[in-house]
Design a protein that fits this description.
With about 80 residues, the protein is mainly α. It has two domains: about 30 residues; about 30 residues, no CATH class. About 45% of the residues lie in helices and about 0% in strands. The longest helix is centred in the first third of the chain and has 27 residues.
Length: about 80
Amino acid sequence: MKGIDEKDYELGKANMKIKELEERLEQLRPRKRRKVQTSPNAKFVTTRAIFEAQIAAGNRQIVPEESEEEGDSDSTISCIEVNAI
């Protein structure tokens, strides 16, 4: 009985490893590309249109836009001031 339990354990462990590898392989596969919709009156594509196409294709997460009313923004660059003597 002990040998059978060890074999079942090894088989279950191997099946879990196979599932993990299959899921990782699925994540690494290239996604289907979508054509970016352009305005017929524009020469170039806008970045907004590119982001929308990436979201539709599933390559990018939807990020909420920040309002300009917020005074303290994390996007400001910190700097060090050096006084010359």
